[in-house]
């Protein structure tokens, strides 16, 4: 095997025989039958067997090879726009050929453009010909050969326990379906007999597909259970607030002091989730909890209270945010809330981001290492490089979904495997020390749909804030077409004259940061000209940390009326005065992104509005999914409903951020349609681990391969 081909196979994850055998066809070609030319139908792909009766190179309208073939029933013209001398030779007059292609009718009779052609010799195949997903430098024919060889060579002993209930296959034909063995199922899927109903292969309802999907889901569930068992062995610090002995005037626990300082009372939902967290971190196994609550539901204060409990128990806490702007905002808020209380203990809140003056950074690192930094707020910088905590007890991750944590969220290891993939992994690795694992709380406004929770987050506890703080007026959302932009700007200018503050968000263009930036700058300038009396600010990701900070501070202080920004303000930003959000080219944004952007307003008591300015294509149309997204935004303010629709529109793969991380989730099973198989796997996995551990290991090794090896480590 050439080095190039080997590399190409590896790139597709095709290393072991079992990997090759699990690389299944995208579709099939039927080369089992020959059709008489007269019986072919327009628009259908057919295989004919015919003799060449004429060959010419035509020069107009463009140079092409034109070959006339005939069988007993009729004739057909083959056309090749790009051709080589060797083709001319193999298509010489008198040759008998097997030709496969799409038949086009037309004034000049039947034609095929660029058909596949080979000599008419040997028997016709008995099975359909598989077409595999492949890459540019891996020819289909070669891939077919290596997979066929692997299929002959590989042993496929059953790993399902003999006494396990068979997977529940849907009963598509009305007749009871027999259960297929893995061996049968795989051989069939690579080389199905021509009598199969192709639709059942395409939509994967065929029992052979069902068998595979059941296996895949079982492997996934087994690994989740194993990880949960592994976590139960880990030790975490017990974080309990101190209790003042009765009758003394010892100070109140820190979190109660904090509650006393807040300008508001917690909502019932906030109190409930605080209690759930407090119970969890008081136990000696690491908490692994997701805090979900709609944008503006008040997750930050819950994080602050959790941190106060940890600090009170004598441990350090870390709060990680996905952007510098958000980290900065958290830092300001938490400093305001906690520093006066921490000062009495000789401690403070520290601050760590990438773009930081070296001297300041050194001071912060020192405070983190000697424990005077009770709480460290920052970006990725917290988990990168040489940050040494004295006693880290609790990690809070804000806007968890932005960290690409995906399904690997549930993993925490002490060593750093070469392929540590997620920030949560890295966090835990960097932070674990002294044989103790920190507790972990992940916060998100993007709730996890139930099917995903069952599948990938089986290992995660969930707390939900299901009410907004009182006094909020609902945000009114309006869709406005781009051609009414001038009208919108006029109205905006009037609103600003009345003292309102607004955001104007410019979209990413083709994922290019440079363009993105020039676009925001241009918008900033044209808006400035259109509204000479308004004070404008500009915010984008290429600005220095200090500049961003200055702009945000001015906006929060009311010194800027209109903040023109890129999506850097997407998550978390909290400026309660701002009551207008305008999103330009809203059709380019994803649903949860739009919901996050809208969540930047409606944070104070003024009635807020969100304007989604959309542009249509040249035909005055929006794509269907864009239309669905914009309508969903106009119809509901409820983040949970938005997440549900998002899942419908996008599917779970993208929801999980799998596209970014490149990690395949489920290859075959589909959570939307295979619920019954998932339930089966969920029920079987724990029993299998208990009663047939060897089979369970073999099953995971087969399906998860190398990945599983290091998960076990
Ligand atoms: P998110 O859940 O989106 O992170 P934040 O934590 O940023 O929300 O809170 C949104 C705003 O609501 C902040 O200005 C915060 O101070 C305020 N807030 C939080 N809890 C309450 C409450 N119980 N009553 C009134 N205002 C609150
Ligand atoms: Mg937030």
TrEMBL record:
Keywords: ATP-binding, DNA damage, DNA recombination, DNA repair, DNA-binding, Helicase, Hydrolase, Isomerase, Nucleotide-binding. CDD domains: DEXHc_RecG, RecG_wedge_OBF, SF2_C_RecG. One of its GO terms (molecular function) is DNA binding. Pfam families: DEAD, Helicase_C, RecG_dom3_C, RecG_wedge. It is an enzyme of class 5 (isomerase). Plays a critical role in recombination and DNA repair. Helps process Holliday junction intermediates to mature products by catalyzing branch migration. Has replication fork regression activity, unwinds stalled or blocked replication forks to make a HJ that can be resolved. Has a DNA unwinding activity characteristic of a DNA helicase with 3'-5' polarity. Belongs to the helicase family. RecG subfamily. One of its GO terms (biological process) is DNA repair. Its EC number is 5.6.2.4. Residues 484-648 form the Helicase C-terminal domain. PROSITE patterns: HELICASE_ATP_BIND_1 (PS51192), HELICASE_CTER (PS51194). Residues 280-465 form the Helicase ATP-binding domain. It catalyses: Couples ATP hydrolysis with the unwinding of duplex DNA by translocating in the 3'-5' direction; ATP + H2O = ADP + phosphate + H(+). This is ATP-dependent DNA helicase RecG.
């Amino acid at each position: 095997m050439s080095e190039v081909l080997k590399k190409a196979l590896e790139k597709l994850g095709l290393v072991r025989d079992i990997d090759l055998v699990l690389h299944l066809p995208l579709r099939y070609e039927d080369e089992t039958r020959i059709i008489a030319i007269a019986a072919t139908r327009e628009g259908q792909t057919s295989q004919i067997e015919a003799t060449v009766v004429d060959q010419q190179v035509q020069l107009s309208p463009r140079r092409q090879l034109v070959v006339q073939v005939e069988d007993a029933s009729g004739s057909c013209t083959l056309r090749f726009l790009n051709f080589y001398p060797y083709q001319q030779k193999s298509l010489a007059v008198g040759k008998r050929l097997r030709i496969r292609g799409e038949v086009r009718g037309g004034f000049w009779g039947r034609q095929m453009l660029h058909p596949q052609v080979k000599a008419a010799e040997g028997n016709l195949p008995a099975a359909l010909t598989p077409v595999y997903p492949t890459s540019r430098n891996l020819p289909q024919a070669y891939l077919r050969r290596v997979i066929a060889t692997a299929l002959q060579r590989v042993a496929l002993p059953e790993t399902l326990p003999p006494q396990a209930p068979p997977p529940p296959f849907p009963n598509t034909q009305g007749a009871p379906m027999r259960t297929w063995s893995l061996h049968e199922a795989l051989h069939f899927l690579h080389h199905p007999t021509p009598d199969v109903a192709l639709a059942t292969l395409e939509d994967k309802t065929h029992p052979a597909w069902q068998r595979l999907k059941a296996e895949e889901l079982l492997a996934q569930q087994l690994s989740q259970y194993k990880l949960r068992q592994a976590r139960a062995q880990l030790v975490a610090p017990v974080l309990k607030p101190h209790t003042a002995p009765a009758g003394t005037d010892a100070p109140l626990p820190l979190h109660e002091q904090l509650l006393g300082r807040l300008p508001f009372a917690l909502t019932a939902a906030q109190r409930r989730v605080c209690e759930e967290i407090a119970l969890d971190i008081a136990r000696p196994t690491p908490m692994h909890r997701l805090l979900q609550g709609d944008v503006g539901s008040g997750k930050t204060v819950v994080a602050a209270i959790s941190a106060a409990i940890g600090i009170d128990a004598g441990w350090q806490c870390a709060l990680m945010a996905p952007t510098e702007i958000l980290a900065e905002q958290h830092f300001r808020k938490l400093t305001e809330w906690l520093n006066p209380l921490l000062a009495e203990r000789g401690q403070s809140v520290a601050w760590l981001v990438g773009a930081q003056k070296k001297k300041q950074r050194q001071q912060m690192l020192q405070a983190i290492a000697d424990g005077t930094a009770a709480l460290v707020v920052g970006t990725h910088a917290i988990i990168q490089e040489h940050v040494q905590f004295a006693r880290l007890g609790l990690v809070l991750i804000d806007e968890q979904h932005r960290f690409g944590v995906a399904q690997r969220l549930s993993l925490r290891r002490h060593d750093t495997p070469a392929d540590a993939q997620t920030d949560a992994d890295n966090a835990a690795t960097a932070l674990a020390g002294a044989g103790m694992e920190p507790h972990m709380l992940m916060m998100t406004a993007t709730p996890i749909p139930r099917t995903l929770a069952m599948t990938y987050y089986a290992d995660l506890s969930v707390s939900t804030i299901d009410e907004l703080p009182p006094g909020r007026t609902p945000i009114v959302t309006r869709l406005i077409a781009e051609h009414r932009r001038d009208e919108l700007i006029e109205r905006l200018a009037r609103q600003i004259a009345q003292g309102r503050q607004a955001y104007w968000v410019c979209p990413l263009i083709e994922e290019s940061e440079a363009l993105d930036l020039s676009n925001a700058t241009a918008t900033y300038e044209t808006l400035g000209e259109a509204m000479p009396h308004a004070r404008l600010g500009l915010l984008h990701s290429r600005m220095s940390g200090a500049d961003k900070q200055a702009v945000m501070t001015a906006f929060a202080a009311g010194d800027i009326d209109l903040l023109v920004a890129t999506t850097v303000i997407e998550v978390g930003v909290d400026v309660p005065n701002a009551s207008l959000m305008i999103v330009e080219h809203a059709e380019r944004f994803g649903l949860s992104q739009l919901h996050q952007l809208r969540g930047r307003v409606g944070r104070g008591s003024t009635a807020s509005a969100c304007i989604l300015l959309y542009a249509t294509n040249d035909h005055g149309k929006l794509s269907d999914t864009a239309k669905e997204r914009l309508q969903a935004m106009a119809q509901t303010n409820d983040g949970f409903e938005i997440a549900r629709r998002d899942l419908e529109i996008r599917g779970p793969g993208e929801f999980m951020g799998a596209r970014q991380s490149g990690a395949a989730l489920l290859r075959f099973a589909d959570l939307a349609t295979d619920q019954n198989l998932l339930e089966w796997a969920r029920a079987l996995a724990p029993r299998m681990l208990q009663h047939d551990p060897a089979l369970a290991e073999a099953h995971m090794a087969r399906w998860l391969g190398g990945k599983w090896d290091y998960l076990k480590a």
